[in-house]
Amino acid sequence: MGMPLALFVRLNYMAAITLFLIGLHVLLGHPNLIKKVMGMNIMETGVFLFLVSIGYARHSAAPIMSPGGAESGLYANPLVSAIVLTGIVIAVSTTAYTLSLTIKLYEHCGTLDVNRLERLRR
Amino acid sequence: MRQLGATALLVVAAAVLFATLAEAPPFGWQEAPTRNVITDRYLAPGAGETGVLNAVTRIIFDYRSYDTLGEATVLFVGVAAAVVVLSGRTGRFAVRLAGGSDDPVLQTVTRVVVPLVQVFAAYVITHGHLSPGGGFAGGTMLGASFVLYLFVFGADRARRKLRPETGEMVEGGAAVWYVLVGLGGVLMGASFLANAAAGFPRGVEGALLSGGAVWLIGLGIGVKVAATVANLFLHLTGED
Questions:
Q1: A56 contact B CB<8A
Q2: Interchain contact, B95 vs A103, CB within 8 Å
Q3: Which end of chain A is less enclosed by CB atoms within 10 A, N or C?
């Protein structure tokens, strides 16, 4: 199997990694603290997409047991969905804490620009 | 210089991730190694050993309920830390985030939408064992309806609807409720957070009141998450 085909059958994973990298780029490269928090959240979204994609099998139904069973007899893996739920809750907690610190920082320094904050320190 | 370092790190990360990806099992493969005996146990047909039709709810509130209790604690600690940081707003650049809006269109639409969102949230919370959603999703919706009210009508009016002290009490009470349901399992001679093994009635498959402890815990989590979201935004926008 050639490289292009190998990547094509993993399109969802590629999208997840791309989201992760976009988030990483914003987190590292952007000077604004709010944008950094957004970058962190985009990274988390990439991880969630990756995990949920692992759980999918072709023609599988959502993991809710219907009386007759799934049409294809196959359900998506519910374990990764449960883990993503945990991940979302952690993401919300860290985002809330980071944003509250950011608000506090703005109230004392009047800026969210990392370069300016570094100059303030001197 | 920093920009250059960031870009270099990004390129390295991209190379590693994509190179690894080429070796990963293809997307949607029905015999993927992640589908093993554990998945089969979780996906037992019908109401199974838990009395719950939604397999994700089965996992989070029954098989891995202890894990979810820890998760609820993380949410509690994270938001508590945020509230502690935000208490005592003394800085020179204090910002007022939610003064409300005078726009009649916005206010009227909010008056119509908020009750509908809340009814749907109540449905999602109470039917978590039968349909998609559950305590976490429904609780977030319930909290979001309050956040919408807060941003349209302003923090002062929102505080009259839900005082921060009340919100904190509801949040803590719901967490205690989770532990009490878990201790109920111990009381009935099984392990902590046991469901059917402790004798919680599983009920009729597909009925609203079924699933035993799962239904009770889902209700508690829904209330807890709603109170957490509302509390967080009250403190993010408040002045005290």
A1: yes
A2: yes
A3: C
